[in-house]
Amino acid sequence: MNAIAAEANIRTPTGRDGLSLVKVERTTLGVSSTVWMVKAPIHAMLVSFPVVCFIGALVTDLTYWSSAEIMWADFSIWLITAGLVFSGFATLVSLIRFVGDRTFRTRTAVWLHLSGDLLVFVLSLWNAFVHSRDAWTSVVPTGLALSAMVAVIALCTGWLGLALIYLQSAGVSER
Amino acid sequence: MTPVRHRSMRYSTLLLLLSLACAFGGCSDNAADPSTQIGANPRLPELQQYLLPPIHVAPVVGWKETETPTVPAGLRVQAMATGLEHPRSLYVLPNGDILVVESKSPGTEPVRRPKQIIMHWVESFATGGSSNRPTNRITLLRDADGDGVPEVRSVFLDNLNSPFGVALVGNDLYVAHTDAIVRYPYTAGVTKIAAPGTILTPLPGGPINHHWTKSLVASRDGSLLYVGVGSNSNITENGMSAEKDRAAIWEVERSTGRSRIFASGLRNPNGLSWEPQTSALWTVVNERDEIGPDLVPDYLTSVKDGGFYGWPYSYYGPHLDPRVQPQRPDLVAKALVPDYSLSSHVAPLGLVFSAGSSLPEAYRAGAFVGEHGSWNRKELNGYKVVFIPFAEGRPSGDAQDVVTGFLNANSKARGRPVGLALDKTGALLVADDVGNTIWRVTSASR
Question: Which residues contact B87 (CB under 8 A, 6 or more apart)?
């Protein structure tokens, strides 16, 4: 118990650092924390992919809008597809953490973050179908609008996710 | 967050998911009866754009030993040749020998979008999957006594590149490969040509080659060839530059190979034929997909020199397609309205005028059209051969079913009709590329 208490003392100041967060969790917490201990870095790694893909899709959509050069619309649908795959994994990891960790669930920011992730996923799935139409109307206007919405929401939830770890030490506090 | 807020969020999520499921699955089709779209003035509904377009291809079951297509009273149908490999078009030589063009898609279209991976998978149902048996060749059938049972069957020309159209002028046999018109030396009565061909003119081919069947017909005096070159996309989704010289009928000078665009804006023209009374060029055209179960009707039309028929910018004259950008109002303004709608998504690929037919009197003046069948609407359409009566060189009545039963009672495909021809006895021949059979339709009284 002494060892755990000592670890807990260390954890509070260094818990703001994502890397030590992982280390502490492994040595101190029980079953549920073990789950998210493993997931947390995976999520942190995964979550940057969809943000980059979805912002990229907005850029290629805008380029198609201004050029009508179909290559850019093709880039968009591949970026959206890749973003969907990664955001699917990231959302799944978030959900596992959400279900497995009660303290995590109590935070409004966590709710916001998870709803944002889900919204990004659903809107992007919709967007992928729109982008699978042929030629101009695969992008203009619905696809472009969806890409813009997704890019903004993905940026916000991405920021929120990182803020949860770095500023609020989500999952670091003792239950 | 309060429980109330949780619940309202959950409800709104559920609503969103439900509405998405509805939009993806298409809660209703609302397709019209195809008969409302037969003839000169088809009803054209508002176009709609889908998240998931309706996809329904009849799964292939093939023909059982005793099964044949169905024909109306007064006609008889029998298999003339079976065990072919994807027979797509037919040509009858002056001595009565029948050339069966067995052909398959070049399959060189690169995957540009995730959608194509799904579409290829769906298409594999339509063709019954790919077999490794030899195709891309022409098989000769000789039925000298005209009883519908060929005495001779031989591989006439082999190692072709997705061939489709054939035309004989004198001793020059022209085969429209998917990427070139090639000339072969022909002598009456031969059952095989071993000589290598000579390219008369290259045609737009791969790598995309979305519509790859090149239909071919020679002018009456033999000096010119007309070749159908289909578009390289559904509706320009492969880019405008991929459509150069496509969606058009080319006129090729036989002596030099020099070519010009005879008519354009024809998305996928096939079955080029001369109307016997007016000597005008006619074709059947596959129109665009994915804007509704009743859009855009495929059609049969005469082809005017220099005529523009709308694709991709518009359909049936001034009806704009919003998927095409930049638009060309100058071209739309002169877009011709096709002569005769066959209704939507029937996929006409074969056309033959019935003059010279030995079928009953009711079928003597008009055109037979082979409808390969739909994939882009829930209620299947096409999958049959129809007859359109003509008078004064123009369609003069409703299309009548002539050869049906390609679908069984469970809407599974026993076969699918493609190319048509009249043999030397005046019987109607139908190439069935899924049933791998040539069907021969004769008068029942003969």
Answer: B100, B101, B102, B139, B418, B419, B431, B432, B433, B436, B437, B438
Q: Does any domain span residue B296?
A: yes
Domain assignment of residue B132, given as a range: 70-443
Beta strands B165-169 and B137-142, pairing class: unpaired
Element (H, E) at B216: strand B216-218
Residues 242 to 271 of B: which have CB under 8 A from any A CB?
none
Q: Which residues of B360-393 are buried (b: 16+ CB within 10 A; e: fewer)?
A: eeebebbbbbbbbbbbbbeebbbbbbbbbbbeee
For A168, other C-beta atoms within 10 Å of its C-beta total 16
- 3-state SS string over chain A? CHHHHHHHHHHHHHCCCHHHHHHHHHHHCCHHHHHHHHHHHHHHHHCHHHHHHHHHHHHHHHHHHHHCCHHHHHHHHHHHHHHHHHHHHHHHHHHHHHHHCHHHHCCHHHHHHHHHHHHHHHHHHHHHHHHCCCHHHHCCCHHHHHHHHHHHHHHHHHHHHHHHHHCCCCCCCCC
Q: Taking the model in full, what pTM does it have?
A: 0.88
* Cα B237 from Cα B53, distance rounded (Å): 15
Out of B9, B114, B323, whose CB is closest to A115? B9
Q: What is the pLDDT of residues B368-421, one digit of tens each?
A: 999 999 999 999 999 999 999 999 999 999 999 999 999 999 999 999 999 999
* Number of structural domains found in chain B: 1
Judged by DSSP in three states, B280 sits in coil
Which residue is closest to A127 within chain B, CA to CA? B51
What are A's interface residues with B at a Cβ cutoff of 8 A?
68-71, 74, 77-78, 81, 108, 111, 115, 118, 122, 125-126, 128-130, 132-138, 140
In this structure, what are the phi and psi dihedrals at residue B435, rounded to the nearest 5 degrees? Answer: -80, -5
CATH number, domain containing residue B433: 2.120.10.30
Of the candidate ranges A101-110, A131-140, B242-251, B345-354, the one whose mean pLDDT is the lowest: A101-110
Asked whether the beta carbons of residue A135 and residue B114 sit closer than 8 angstroms, the reply is no
For residue B297, list its beta bridge partners. B344
Residue B26 lies in a domain: no
User: CA of B1, closest CA in chain A: separation in Å?
Assistant: 6
The minimum CA-CA distance between B27 and chain A, rounded to whole Å, is 16
Ramachandran category for residue B112: left, alpha or beta (phi over 0 → left; psi -120 to 50 → alpha): alpha
The span from the CA of B273 to the CA of A43, in Å, is 64
Cβ distance of B290 and A134 shorter than 8 Å: yes
- H/E element holding B12? helix B3-25
CA distance linking residue B101 with residue B191, whole number of Å: 14
Kindly report the number of other CB atoms within 10 A of residue B168's CB atom: 18
Say if residue B2 is exposed, middle or buried (CB neighbours under 10 Å; 0-12, 13-18, 19+).
Answer: exposed
| pLDDT grade for B63, boundaries at 50, 70 and 90 | very high
For B137-161, write each residue's pLDDT tens digit: 999 999 999 999 999 999 999 999 9
Asked if residue B287 is part of any domain, the answer here is: yes
Cα dihedral across residues B176, B179, B181, B185: positive or negative? negative
Question: Does the pLDDT of residue B81 top 60, yes or no?
Answer: yes
B22 occurs within a structural domain: no
